[in-house]
Design a protein that fits this description.
about 400 residues, alpha+beta, Phosphorylase Kinase, domain 1, Phosphatidylinositol 3-kinase Catalytic Subunit, Chain A, Domain 5, five-stranded antiparallel β-sheet, four-stranded antiparallel β-sheet, about 35% helix
């Protein structure tokens, strides 16, 4: 089992990575130390100015196996499932997961055993999107994977979330491809496309999205906003999750709140109060569209070494409701995680928005969803029956207005 590794970073504006420090694992706890040469760089930035300030000392995580900002560079549920599958069930440490994730992982960090001569290895170029779809389905149903397909699927193992996905490069664009799951009992991919498209119409910043039908199945393509193509070279943008912004461990995720994220923006954000108002708009939209999977890892911030900036929205998908009431994944207002407009408006002042402004925002979003849901569903390729199912169970649910 590997006991140490190096953290490579793409600094703002740079297209080549440098080593910023080293991880040393003891009893599955990863301590971190900055490299002295990195500390001497004029353009060095702290990975996290609160947990990992630019100091020449050993940093131990306050909880969990590694620091939150480094955990953001590790695979999430789907990626860990793929890696565990590839390891044939062998136990993997947190450092193993960090090392095994693809080199094109989300954000601007990479974790490698080598301390010099960084090379960017490309995924198996023979693997098409059809191959990747088939490979993800094999993982889901437990069938053996050909070596080439396994390696190609690992390329997307660093992408967060629990659903099947991979990373794709198409000409001068990079995309996250999200696949249907064998366990889907409603059109999840179509629903996410419709909700994302509609979010854009409601004044929410979203990345470019496309939906395609491949091998008779729906595939959602989401343009990566952590990559910028400049002068025919890729630049990586440093990102942290909302969970890291709140300095919470995975087990503390239910404690995360929209108001605390707004407070983080107020203290450290570059675009305050614009970003707190944008966050409020997203919270209202999530409630009205029925997206209850809005946990803190489904919010993120760019980090340039000086300020944090809210990233475009992602992973917005209506969830079918079994009953009338529902709860969001994060605390919304005075009534905790209750998915109601009244609850969302109860602490609107903490988003630097007045009560009349907050009411106007929710009325505007309600109207747009009412008027354009059918259009969004049609663009997503939903049947009338599929669209009606979502409208009946979750879109603008009457429970939102209790």
């Amino acid at each position: 089992m590997t006991s140490e590794a190096y953290i490579w970073i793409w600094l703002p504006g740079e297209h080549e990575p440098v080593i910023c420090g080293k991880l040393q694992s003891e009893m599955n706890i990863c301590n971190f130390v900055y490299g002295r040469s990195y500390l001497e760089r004029q353009n060095a930035i702290a990975l996290d100015p609160r947990e990992l300030p630019l100091q020449d000392r050993v940093f131990s995580p306050s909880f969990g196996e590694t620091h939150s900002v480094i955990r953001d560079a590790a695979p999430d549920a789907w990626g860990r499932r793929v890696l565990t599958y590839k390891s044939e069930g062998q136990a993997l440490s947190e450092l193993d997961y960090l090392l095994a994730a693809g080199r094109d992982r989300i954000g601007a960090l990479d974790v490698r055993t080598e301390s010099s001569g960084y090379t960017v290895t490309q995924p198996d170029q023979s693997a098409s999107i059809e191959d990747l779809m088939n490979a993800s389905e094999m993982v889901e149903i437990g069938e053996p994977l050909p070596e080439s397909l396994g390696n190609a699927l690992l390329h997307g193992s660093s992408v967060g979330g629990a659903r099947p996905k991979s990373l794709l490069t198409d000409a001068d664009q990079k995309w996250i491809a999200k696949f249907s799951s064998t366990t889907d009992h409603y059109p999840v991919i179509k629903s996410e496309y419709a909700a994302m498209w509609l979010a854009g119409k409601c004044g929410i910043q979203i990345p470019d999205i496309k939906i395609e039908k491949i091998l008779g199945k729906d595939v959602l393509l989401v343009k990566r906003f952590d990559r910028e193509g400049i002068n025919n070279r890729w630049h990586r943008r440093f990102m942290i999750s909302g969970l890291t912004a709140l300095q919470l461990h995975e087990t503390e995720a239910p404690l995360a709140s929209y108001t605390e994220l707004a407070s983080f923006i107020r203290r450290s954000g570059e675009h305050y109060p614009a970003d707190t108002k944008q966050l409020f708009r997203r919270m209202i939209f999530n409630i009205l569209i029925g997206n209850t999977d809005d946990h803190a890892r489904n919010h993120a911030f760019f980090w340039d070494g000086n300020h944090y900036t809210l990233t475009p929205a992602y992973d917005i998908c209506p969830m079918l409701r079994a009953g009338q009431t529902a709860n969001q994944a994060m605390v919304v207002g005075e009534n905790g995680r209750e998915s109601t407009i009244r609850n969302a408006l109860s602490l609107s002042h903490l988003f630097s928005i007045t009560v009349p402004e907050a009411q106007t925002v929710q009325e505007e979003i309600v109207q747009i969803i009412q008027e354009r849901w059918d259009e969004a569903a049609d663009f997503a390729g939903m049947t009338k029956k599929e669209s009606a199912l979502l409208k009946r169970s979750t879109i603008l649910s009457p429970a939102c207005f209790y």
